[in-house]
Amino acid sequence: GWLAAHPQATDLVVGSKWGYTYTAGWRTRAASHEVKDHALATYERQVAETRDLLGDRLDLYQIHSLTPESPALT
After folding, report:
1. How many other CB atoms are found less than 10 A from the CB of residue 38?
2. Residues 7-33, buried b or exposed e (16+ Cβ, 10 A)?
3. Which of 3, 11, 44, 60 minimizes the number of CB atoms within 10 Å of its CB?
């Protein structure tokens, strides 16, 4: 990826977000494109996937569309 090809780019803040699982398989006419899920299991799966992609370059990990009803901060 770009980060691996540019190791000298150390003054960047690299961020990502978690909380939605994409389900449409890139089909534009799918009935549903994503599922919102702030459960701990989803966080653990998605942070592992993100770290696999970004390695130690992940600086900021945000919650996508947190609402008072979401279990993420309880």
Report:
1. 20
2. eeeeeeeeebebbbeeeeeeeeeeeee
3. 11
Tokens at 67, concatenated: 């609402």
Angle (CA) 23 19 25, round 5°:
15
Q: What is the rounded distance in angstroms from the CA atom of residue 24 to the CA atom of residue 43?
A: 20
Q: Supply the range of the domain harboring residue 57.
A: 2-63
User: What is the domain count for the chain?
Assistant: 1
Closest CA relative to residue 43, chosen from 26, 13, 21: 21
Specify the pTM. Answer: 0.80
Give me the mean pLDDT over the 67-74 stretch: 81
